[in-house]
Amino acid sequence: MIEHMEFELSKEYLEAFTQAVDAKEADFVTSTLNGVNPADISEVIRELDAEQTKFVIDLLDVEVGAEIIVNLEEDRQSLFLENFTADELATFVDQMDSDDGVDVINELPIEKREEVIASVENEEKAGYILDLLRYEEDVAGGLMAKEMIRANLNWTIQQCIEEIRKQAENVEKIYSVYVVDNEGKLLGRVSLKKIILSEPDALVADIYEEDIVSVGTHADEEEVALTMQKYDLEALPVVNVKGKLVGRITIDDAMDVITEQAEEDRQMMTGISGDVEEDDTVWVLSKARLPWLVIGLVGGLLGAKFISLFEKDIALIPAMAFFIPLITATGGNVGIQSSSIVVQGLASYNAFEDTLLKKMLKVFFVAVVNGIILALIVFGIVIFSTSDQAMAGTVAIALFSVVLLASFMGTVTPLALDKIGINPAMASGPFITTANDLLGLTVYFMVAHFLYGF
Amino acid sequence: MIEHMEFELSKEYLEAFTQAVDAKEADFVTSTLNGVNPADISEVIRELDAEQTKFVIDLLDVEVGAEIIVNLEEDRQSLFLENFTADELATFVDQMDSDDGVDVINELPIEKREEVIASVENEEKAGYILDLLRYEEDVAGGLMAKEMIRANLNWTIQQCIEEIRKQAENVEKIYSVYVVDNEGKLLGRVSLKKIILSEPDALVADIYEEDIVSVGTHADEEEVALTMQKYDLEALPVVNVKGKLVGRITIDDAMDVITEQAEEDRQMMTGISGDVEEDDTVWVLSKARLPWLVIGLVGGLLGAKFISLFEKDIALIPAMAFFIPLITATGGNVGIQSSSIVVQGLASYNAFEDTLLKKMLKVFFVAVVNGIILALIVFGIVIFSTSDQAMAGTVAIALFSVVLLASFMGTVTPLALDKIGINPAMASGPFITTANDLLGLTVYFMVAHFLYGF
Question: Which protein family is it in (chains A, B) (predicted)?
């Protein structure tokens, strides 16, 4: 139970709120949203369109408005931001941390970006944003904020406290003070707890923690998240190639990386393109799902074409048709299992990874074990129920081959995708299932053709 | 790039290290691990067996050993802990936060649990652990630690600082001081930043932040994670039904919940039972994958049995067999897409959720749109390539029906599973794909039977 705001975030409130917005009743909006956590207001905003959102944000404090704009879903941000002038946007950006500011600016058309940055009053912030624009969004440099507290190695604790006071407004969340040398090179950190417990005249050099984990600006966002998770960090300093402290990533951003990654993987695996949700429109949902269904359809038609080559065989022995779903389904299941284990291995950082050869050998052995067991089960059941040795042999051999092939495909495909920079989770999606279907059918009918001696 | 320790975490080091452990060369172990971050030592430990692990942990500082034990993978913890006596374990638990301590104790056999708790020296910690044992592992009470800083509303900042000093050793990470009244009811918080910037004689009552988000002890772990993510919190206070502050959840635990959930979902979706990884043995991997493959096999055999009912039809018109994979594959794809969107909706907290009826209607319309488009494509292609109207009609109608049915199944199944307390992600797994296969075949052959007028 989230203790506060429970009442206001109700369906009834939303209805009253939307009506008030449409009737431009500013009083209702400001009075009911007064003091409400911006994260909660963002949930209400989610239900509004661009124009309604603009109306509400204009009525709120600029800090609250800034936070709401940051919280807008990425796919709606650029549309919603069109309603604001460059000057208005600059006022909001002024209130954002530089990492959020640059994310918002990245959603704007190029011309407007420069206008907004030029209009940001806080010159330091404008400089920060210009600096951050240089980085890709999915590396440490694109995640970090420039706002943080840094202390020189030669300072006293009192000087650190002065610096915190000076920066208090700029840096919302402070966990540590980062210690740098005269060249700005990151040396370590002093936690706020230690600052509180130390004498004001204590020297940073005497008490700082030297063992500090940092990442380079070009570290991949997943590496950032894994590092923060491994070392249980709430903030991670970012250094450039020379070891100079250039920014700080906070845990909320790492957490977003993890959930977005999981979401993207799921969509890849289920063949849904784009970031759709249950409450999108029928048309958006259809459109997101159709491409992969059509690919599956094309695969199915190719399969049909392929099976038709064996039309005469099927006319003679219709039982051959019976086991088509068994073969394709097993191929699909094995392929997805294999690729899933590989994808998981790729996602988790492991210092002592097996070589590719060792991996492939293990995949091969697992496939052999499972293939033999499944083939034996099927052989037994088919022999028992039909006494057709040729059929039982065909299905068993085909099944065994399919397990082997699908394991191989399921292992190689994500590795290959990863090598060329495509999300390997795609290898667990409909495309590969379809490919495995075709492969399985080929094996099945070839084996049958051979065993029956057509 | 993780800046420090890069060299030691190499394959060569691991080899030398394992040899040293087997040869009981204590010197090599202590000298190379001296000063190394426990999270990194844990990665080395991952590669060792229970006995080797015991040898290494015994050589390390007890705090480091405690952290390594906490970091052990859950499925190996209970096995590894067998090698330690209750007294030894108590020494380690003494060094852990109460939430980690209770997790470790939960892995022990019941008799040993009491022994360990009785041997924990710090009586306050023992009490904490006894208290935490009452909660299920997957609710807020099971995630929280009892260690935190609480301040009475009537205190001064100086008194808060004294309390922090007193608790400094017990509470490793301090983000805020929680403000309570005389009955222990949670009123708000004061951030460490504010404590540093306030005068020592300032009153907590004057400066504390009243707008605080908390959860109840029985809140589900996913709700905890979503709440922390929504409000960007690094720590979340937990209150009992009377509003009394009873514990605190830190962000690292919420992050673990999110990754474990994503992992579990993926395994459900791919039909792998248990928490297996690429580097498990061939046998473990086979065993984790076989159950679902066998279920798929049984489904495939049922499918074979079912198709065999139409043996005569197939002998007359072998072309009926051609489209079996098309029908089953499309059913599978549509089913997985639908369930995936539902599962995603269930996982994300939404205050303004659509009613079930509205959801189902939307699913229905999406299915109709996609079904019609796919059916038209297939009808066109089959007519064009075979001129067989009955066949084109059969495949198109069957495909349309399969899309509708699979959408329905894919939507209802996860909702039903969720209702009865089973992870809804299972609805995207092989079990449902198999059910959809059978359903699709039924529709296909019934339609064919009818249209061809057998």
Answer: Belongs to the SLC41A transporter family.
Contacts of B239 in chain A (CB under 8 A): 3
Q: Nearest chain B residue to A162 by CA: give it.
A: B197
- Whether A351 sits inside 8 A of B300 (CB atoms) is no
Cα–Cα dist A132/A140, whole Å: 10
Residues 242..271 of B with a Cβ closer than 8 Å to A: which? 243, 251-252, 254-256, 258-259, 262-263, 265-267, 269-271
The whole-angstrom separation of Cα A430 and Cα A422 is 15
- At what angle are helices A74-81 and A50-59 packed, to 10 degrees? 80
With a pLDDT cut of 90, the percent of chain A lying above it is 54
Confidence of residue A152 (pLDDT cuts 50, 70, 90): very high
How many Cα atoms occupy the beta-carbon half-sphere of A206 within 13 Å? 10
Q: Best residue in A100, A285, A306, A388 to probe B by mutation, most B CBs within 10 Å?
A: A285
Q: Which residues of B touch A285 (CB under 8 A)?
A: 341, 362, 366
B336 touches chain A (CB under 8 A): yes
Q: Between residues 406 and 445 of chain B, which touch chain A (CB distance below 8 Å)?
A: 428, 430, 433-434, 437, 441
Q: Which residues of A touch B195 (CB under 8 A)?
A: 196
Tokens of B304: 């074979």
- Both structure tokens of A103: 């994310």
Q: Is the Cβ pair B4, A211 closer than 8 Å?
A: yes
Name which of A42, A248, A41 is nearest A140 in CA terms: A248
What tens digit of pLDDT does each residue of A217-255 get? 999 999 999 999 999 999 999 999 999 999 999 999 999
Chain A nearest-CA residue for B42: A230
**Quick check: helix, strand or coil at residue B405?**
helix
d(CA A201, CA A366): 64
Give the three-class secondary structure for A151: strand
Tokens of B311: 């043996």
Query: Residue A2 and residue B297: Cβ atoms within 8 Å?
Result: no
Mapping DSSP to helix (H, G, I), strand (E, B) and coil, where does residue B56 land? Answer: helix
Say whether B278 and A9 touch across the interface (CB within 8 A).
Answer: no
Residue whose pair of structure tokens reads 């499944």 in the numeric block: A374
Identify which has the larger pLDDT, B84 or B421. B84
Residues of chain B positioned with their CB less than 8 A from the CB of A341: 272, 276-278, 285
Average pLDDT over residues B19-45: 91
Q: What tokens appear for B347 in the block?
A: 């996982």
Instruction: Pick from A347-351, B25-29, B285-289 the range whose average pLDDT is largest.
Output: B25-29
Residue B274, pLDDT score: 67
Asked if B192's CB is within 8 angstroms of A192's CB, the reply is yes
Token pair listed for B5:
């320790």
Question: Do the beta carbons of residue A310 and residue A445 sit within 8 Å?
Answer: yes
pLDDT at A1: 37
**pLDDT of the residue at B448:** 85
**Tens of pLDDT, residues A351-380:** 666 677 887 888 889 999 999 999 999 999
Cβ-based contacts of A348 with chain B (< 8 Å): 277
| Model ipTM value | 0.85
* Helix extents (H) in A309-355: 311-316, 319-322, 324-347
Please, are residues B292 and B299 in contact by the beta-carbon 8 Å criterion? no
Q: How confident is the model over B131-149, as a mean pLDDT?
A: 95
Q: Give me the pLDDT at residue B212, please.
A: 94
- Provide the chain A residues 91-120 that lie in CB contact (below 8 A) with chain B: none
As a whole number of angstroms, the distance between CA B448 and CA A237 comes to 65
Mean pLDDT of A79-88: 92
Phi, psi of A7 (to 5 degrees): -65, -50
A245-250, strands of its sheet edge to edge = A215-216, A235-239, A245-250
